[in-house]
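User: Reviewer 2 asked us to show a designed sequence for the structure in our supplementary figure. I'm pasting the structure tokens here. Could you produce the per-position amino acids so we can include them in the response letter?
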């Protein structure tokens, strides 16, 4: 059964004063009747809720078990249960909302967005689903899709202060950051102790590089929102003056009544705090605790990853790419040389490279665009033929429009989405003129930095040392392949350590590769005023520094399986 209102085979007559079958708890006349009338749908075709006693009993059991899993922070185990609930009761908005929230807690953001969007379709005024939809879409860079939900919440949320806050979020999504800041400050005048406003204002100020102001608001938000502590540690170096707050957060992390999501954030925040304070043993203890909690919700499917890499390498072999280039040659279009793809492992220096390039007046930073991941996920490419040529041509046209909207007058627009690593074959066929920059950092420093990061989006390999090593080896295997098959004049590699050691020489090489004239602004990326939303927002505002090189030495006693990634010892004299 489709679960749509058109499914007339599962209908009954609904009166104006009956409860609405959408599950909102409102009377039909105050809920879906108006929408049905606008859509030309009769109340007689509203879908029927499950009536079988066996189904109702099964739903009750699933709910109970799923809620217990959620309460214990075992969100990944709750997902298949919520998925079955949504399948058995497909017209109940709450069923899709619960599934979406569980996926959101596990960092499975595309799945979360799909379920929450379905909940909103079934019940457009479902505030819980609208809130979750915003949280699922924004970290994916899909702010344009989140904007309608923000706008609706700014009008429909029960609390007028919440409406004002979502209005500020909508302004920020539209790029009207100063207006958003003023809106939040005016909200604090009305409600000085409103912690969620201070949290949002701290995040907004952080992205704009106003770290001192951001830290003040985030510190005040920690009492009500312990997760704000982690964000606080991301925008400043913790010092002995912060000891009282650090000690309070350390006590909080041990309390059994703290929810799992907040506990994880506090653990990662404590790891960063003790790293700043030079207590590396204590820092690693908290990083381990945070990662162990995350690993309960998601772990890497090693066999699946290896098979996926095998498939990508086979599909985009040198021979296949050569045949494809000959079989469907596409004439060059204006804007084909606009994209600059910055590829590399997360925490490998991709944000620094984007900061350097976008300091050039002819370059605009696109950030982590989800375009290619979303587009290719909708395809099922088993070969490269005429049909794929048409799809790629249309995708290229749509992508150029996205880039032109980001940088209307720019010669180059960067895209540093991590998912693009697996899609460089597709990207290379779609854009013969695109430039690809591969950023490499020493494996041990890259993976240790990943282990120290509480990612919002899904990184199922990040929470276990063994999984990290396995993932890195697969990444190396894939990049070895791209290095062999991508055109050498459109593919360049930058060593992070070389960039740090000799920034001017490496920066000049990057600018020349992008086909641009030299500009001295590229030597001062910390002055770049653009908004930075990645985990590296603080680092991106600092002059190029060397303390991140060989950081692993501070943690050598606790590396465990990461030791496999240590550099080979230099030969003796």
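Assistant: Here is a per-position design you can include in the supplement:
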């Amino acid at each position: 059964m489709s679960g749509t209102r058109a499914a007339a085979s599962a209908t009954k007559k609904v009166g104006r004063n009956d409860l609405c079958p959408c599950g909102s708890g409102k009377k039909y006349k105050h809920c879906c009747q108006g929408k049905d009338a606008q859509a030309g749908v009769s109340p007689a075709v509203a879908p029927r809720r499950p009536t079988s006693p066996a189904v109702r009993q099964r739903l009750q059991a699933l709910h109970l078990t799923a809620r217990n899993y959620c309460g214990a922070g075992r969100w990944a185990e709750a997902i298949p249960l919520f998925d079955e609930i949504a399948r058995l009761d497909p017209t109940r908005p709450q069923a899709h909302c619960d599934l979406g929230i569980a996926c959101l807690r596990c960092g499975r953001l595309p799945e979360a967005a799909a379920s929450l969007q379905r909940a909103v379709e079934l019940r457009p005024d479902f505030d819980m689903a609208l809130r979750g939809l915003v949280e699922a879409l924004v970290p994916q860079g899909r702010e344009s899709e989140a904007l309608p939900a923000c706008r609706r919440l700014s009008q429909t949320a029960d609390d007028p202060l919440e409406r004002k806050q979502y209005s500020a979020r909508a302004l920020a999504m539209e790029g009207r950051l100063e207006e958003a800041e003023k809106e939040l400050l005016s909200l604090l005048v009305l409600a000085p102790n409103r912690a969620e406003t201070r949290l949002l204002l701290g995040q907004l100020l952080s992205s704009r590089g106003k770290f001192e102001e951001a830290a003040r608001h985030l510190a005040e938000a920690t009492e009500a929102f312990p997760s704000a502590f982690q964000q606080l540690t991301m925008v400043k170096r913790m010092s002995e003056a912060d000891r009282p707050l650090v000690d309070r957060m350390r006590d909080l992390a041990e309390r059994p009544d703290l929810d799992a999501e907040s506990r994880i954030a506090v653990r990662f925040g404590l790891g960063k705090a003790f790293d700043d304070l030079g207590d590396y043993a204590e820092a690693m203890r908290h990083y381990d605790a945070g990662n162990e909690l995350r690993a309960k919700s998601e772990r890497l499917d090693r066999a699946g990853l290896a098979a996926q890499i095998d498939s990508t390498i086979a599909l985009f072999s040198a021979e296949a790419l050569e045949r494809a280039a000959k079989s469907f040659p596409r004439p060059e279009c204006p804007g084909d040389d606009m994209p600059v793809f910055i590829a590399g492992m997360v925490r490998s220096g991709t944000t620094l490279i984007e900061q350097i390039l976008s300091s050039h007046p002819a370059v605009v930073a696109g950030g982590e665009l989800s375009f290619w991941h979303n587009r290719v996920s909708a395809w099922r490419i088993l070969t490269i033929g005429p049909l794929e040529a048409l799809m790629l041509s249309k995708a290229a046209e749509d992508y150029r429009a996205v880039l032109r909207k980001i940088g209307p007058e720019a010669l180059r627009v960067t895209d540093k989405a991590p998912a693009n690593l697996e899609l460089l074959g597709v990207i290379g066929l779609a854009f013969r003129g695109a430039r690809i920059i591969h950023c490499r950092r020493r494996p041990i420093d890259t993976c240790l930095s990943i282990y120290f990061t509480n990612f919002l989006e899904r990184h199922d390999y990040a929470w276990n040392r063994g999984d990290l090593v396995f993932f890195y080896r697969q990444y190396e295997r894939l990049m070895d392949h791209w290095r062999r098959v991508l055109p050498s004049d459109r593919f360049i590699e930058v060593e992070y350590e070389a960039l740090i050691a000799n920034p001017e020489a490496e920066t000049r090489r990057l600018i020349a590769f992008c086909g641009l004239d030299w500009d001295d602004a590229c030597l001062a990326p910390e002055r770049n005023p653009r908004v930075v939303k990645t985990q590296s927002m603080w680092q991106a505002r600092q002059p190029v520094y060397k303390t991140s090189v060989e950081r692993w030495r501070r943690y050598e006693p606790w590396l465990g399986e990461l030791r496999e990634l240590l550099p080979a010892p230099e030969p003796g004299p």
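For the response letter, you might also mention the following. The mean pLDDT is 86. The first strand starts at residue 339 and ends at 343.
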